[in-house]
Design goal:
The structure is a single chain. This protein has about 375 residues and is of the alpha+beta class. About 25% of the residues lie in helices and about 25% in strands. Strands 5, 6, 7, 16, 17, 18, 19, 20 and 21 form a nine-stranded mixed beta sheet that branches. The chain has a six-stranded mixed beta sheet with strand order 9-2-1-15-23-22, covered by helices on one side. Strand 1, helix 1 (about 10-20) and strand 2 form a beta-alpha-beta unit. Helix 1 (about 10-20) packs parallel to helix 6 (about 145-160) and helix 1 crosses helix 10.
């Protein structure tokens, strides 16, 4: 089967990789290249963690994903997964998101243990913890290389006989129950047996009648801060990734390879056009992040911002991904709505999509179009 995959971000690149590993003929399209600066899979790092509250579906999938990331490292001979462990910090009394996850993680071979704040302070004195009520330690968690992984995946697809084209592609007309071809921005068209659209924040634009009311695009800022000279306390492996579940959910990655100390706010902030919007950071947001940084990591209070970027989340109404067949075309498949937590599950998404396209297997109910259509309004932050 010849499968055209449109979009070389995490979902598209992993789908192309899984398809070509199973012997499909694959042509992968992306106008700006894998992990480009406008994509949701751009930038340096993403978190990988198995803590998902009481949602066992995702816990099970993350457990599978850990193994898939390690397998890919061996095949590609590139390290893309860095197991630093993760601190989960709760300044309020409600720590149910972590506490209910503990037995589910254990069931799937992962670990989450409760620490006293004294234990955490002794281990990581560089973090201010006086306001923290409970702390949890997730051993297998860490960070993933984002942009580089997408590039490595495309390299592996091409090595295995697939093709990558720097082209903007859009769906053509559906005739009967089939999409006949995709249209190329450079002119002409391209024909395959099946088509997978994994276009991140561009999905609602490509399928407006179907997705414009189901997937919203929010603006997200990421900031990096320079470390004091000779400081090792804020670099890997001396500090893990962390998630601070306070009034605003903040998370970050310690400095690695001199890239800076990463701080991000998980709050969804307004609507965003990934093609035309300027990606300038806002002074108000930077001040807000600086205040947080100085509070939680006091020695970095005056650290200079060395880098920042604006990316986006593709949000569904219930925080679940969209992994399904188009309702009007049985040779068109949709992979989107990463909802800010999809990157780590790229290998599993690729496997699910490959099985759906090649074998006709159904996808988990949570990821079907009907799940998004029947959902209510997404409550903000870490719904999943």
């Amino acid at each position: 089967m010849h499968v055209a995959v449109v979009g070389a971000g995490a979902f598209g690149a992993w789908t192309a990789y899984q398809l070509v590993q199973r012997g499909a003929k694959v042509t992968l399209f992306d106008p700006w290249g894998p992990g480009h600066s406008r994509s949701s899979s751009g930038g340096e790092t993403r978190l990988i963690r198995g803590t998902y509250g009481n949602d066992e579906v995702y816990t099970q999938l993350v457990a599978e994903a850990f193994g898939a990331w390690e397998d890919f490292q061996r095949q590609s001979e590139h390290q893309v997964y860095f197991p630093t462990g993760s601190l989960w910090l709760f300044s309020k009394s409600d720590d149910g998101y972590a506490r209910t996850a503990m037995p589910l993680l254990q069931r799937h071979g992962l670990s989450l243990e409760e620490w006293t704040t004294g234990q955490a302070r002794d281990k990581y004195p560089q973090i201010y913890l006086d306001d923290i009520k409970t702390v949890f330690w997730e051993k297998e968690a860490g960070y993933l290389m984002a942009r580089k992984t997408c590039q490595y995946l495309v390299e592996e697809v091409v090595k295995a006989g697939g093709q990558f084209l720097h082209e903007r592609a859009a769906p053509g007309n559906i005739e009967g129950t089939k999409l006949k071809q995709i249209k190329l921005a450079s002119g002409g068209a391209f024909t395959a047996d099946a088509y997978v659209f994994a276009c991140g924040p561009w999905m609602p634009t490509l399928f407006p009648a179907l997705l414009s009311d189901l997937i919203s695009i929010s603006r997200q800022e990421i900031h990096y801060f320079g470390l004091p000279d000779l400081s090792k306390a804020y670099r890997t492996p001396n500090l893990p990734i962390w998630v601070d579940m306070g009034e605003r959910i903040m998370y970050g990655v310690p400095d690695y390879d001199g890239r800076g100390f990463k701080v991000a706010d998980d709050t969804r902030e307004g609507n965003f056009d990934p093609s035309t919007a300027d990606r300038e950071v806002r002074a108000e947001k930077l001040n807000q992040v600086r205040q947080y940084l100085g509070y939680r990591f006091p020695a970095l209070r005056d650290a200079p911002m060395t880098e920042a970027r604006v990316c986006q989340y593709s949000n569904s109404p219930n925080g679940h991904f969209l992994l399904d067949q188009h309702p009007e075309a049985d040779n068109v498949f949709l992979a989107g709505a990463g909802c800010g937590h999809g990157f780590k599950l790229g290998p599993v998404v690729g496997r699910i999509m490959a099985e759906r396209v090649l074998d006709g297997l159904s996808v988990p109910l949570e990821f079907r179009l009907e799940s998004l259509q029947n959902a209510g309004t997404l409550s903000n932050q870490f719904e999943h």
